């Protein structure tokens, strides 16, 4: 990487890091205050991505920046700026070349957190503080409770669900943002509640912003190369993306249709505060459950699909 490409010290001079908002496959996102000469300019989300000294890897990471630059839409997180500098990502690690992506910060967290908070019972209200092992045990108990509910439903704690008007309001926002992506020939490939952010205005009205475009692809580029692996989050992947031939080659590639399947899973999550799968603690069993998932296929329900998605 050319040393002229670095803006060393920019992050430390103009930003105060508040907390980590989340972590993905390629980098972590932080809540930061933007400061100029001790004047507070606002709060932003900054994504830090380690790029090393490989220029081709940097070009690949900058794909997210290029996509965000042309995707201005009320339901898509707004891109602000990007730069390079050496940065220490861990307490004991060395400084490495990092790409910083400055983005709009949603003040309401993500949709997954919101639904868990709104639908929590006394049994699961503390779930956000559980360890991975404790969450695994709780998931198993939830599956057992579901099985018991068929014989003795009175013993199962009742959850609170989102009201239908709120479900439609949130879902329409997601549809509008996804339709904008598809109109530009872009496939998100990782649509899920944790990548859907909530922004509240002064009157406490919420709007959903689609975020995390690290896995996005342009349709024309997808058709130019063979698919070598699974991208995205397994629970939200369409069944056809998991099907391979006798040589282990995937039959189908990502498309707008695979985004639509993920959209359907998001709608299910909005309605029931969970997904329709139970084998979440075993990847192989979960894949089989997704592949054999029973779904309704009928042209009679097309009239209820949001028009902008056609």
Write the layout of secondary structure elements.
Layout lengths: L9 H5 E9 L4 E9 L2 E12 L4 H15 L9 E10 L6 E10 L6 H9 L12 H18 L14 H20 L2 E2 L8 E5 L5 E5 L6 E2 H4 L33 H17 L10 H9 L19
Antiparallel strand pairs: 1-2, 2-3, 3-5, 4-5, 6-9, 7-8
What can you tell me about this protein's structure?
This protein has 8 helices and 9 strands. It has 3 domains: 3-104, Phosphorylase Kinase, domain 1 (2-Layer Sandwich), CATH 3.30.200; 121-155; 164-309, Transferase(Phosphotransferase) domain 1 (Transferase(Phosphotransferase), domain 1). The protein has helices at 10-14, 55-69, 111-119, 132-149, 164-183, 219-222, 256-272, 283-291; strands at 15-23, 28-36, 39-50, 79-88, 95-104, 186-187, 196-200, 206-210, 217-218. 31% of the residues lie in helices and 21% in strands.
């Amino acid at each position: 990487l050319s040393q002229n490409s670095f803006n060393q010290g920019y992050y430390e001079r103009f930003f105060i890091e508040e907390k980590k908002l989340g972590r993905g496959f390629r980098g972590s996102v932080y809540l930061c205050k933007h400061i100029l000469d001790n004047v507070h300019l606002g709060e932003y989300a900054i994504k830090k991505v380690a790029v090393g000294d490989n220029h081709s890897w940097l070009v690949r990471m900058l794909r997210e920046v290029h996509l965000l630059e042309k995707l201005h839409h009320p339901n898509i997180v707004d891109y602000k700026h990007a730069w390079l500098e050496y940065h220490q990502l861990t307490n004991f690690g060395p400084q490495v070349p990092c790409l910083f992506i400055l983005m709009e910060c949603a003040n309401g967290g993500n949709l997954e957190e919101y639904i868990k908070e709104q639908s929590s019972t006394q049994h699961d209200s503390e779930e956000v503080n559980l360890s991975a092992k404790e969450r695994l045990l709780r998931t198993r108990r939830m599956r057992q409770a579901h099985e018991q509910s068929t014989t003795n439903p009175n013993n199962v704690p009742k959850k609170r669900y989102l009201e239908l008007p709120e479900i439609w309001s949130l879902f329409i926002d997601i549809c509008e943002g996804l339709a904008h992506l598809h109109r530009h020939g872009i496939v998100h490939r990782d649509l899920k509640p944790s990548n859907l952010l909530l922004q509240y205005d002064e009157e406490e009205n919420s709007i959903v912003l689609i975020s995390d475009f690290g896995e996005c692809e342009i349709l024309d580029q997808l058709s130019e190369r063979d698919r070598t692996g699974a991208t995205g989050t397994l629970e939200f992947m369409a069944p056809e993306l998991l099907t391979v031939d006798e040589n282990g080659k995937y039959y189908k590639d990502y498309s707008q249709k695979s985004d639509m399947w993920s959209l359907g899973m998001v709608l299910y999550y909005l309605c029931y505060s969970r997904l329709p799968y139970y084998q979440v603690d075993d990847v192989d069993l979960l894949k089989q459950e997704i592949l054999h998932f029973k779904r309704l296929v009928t042209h009679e329900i097309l009239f209820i699909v949001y028009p902008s998605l056609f």
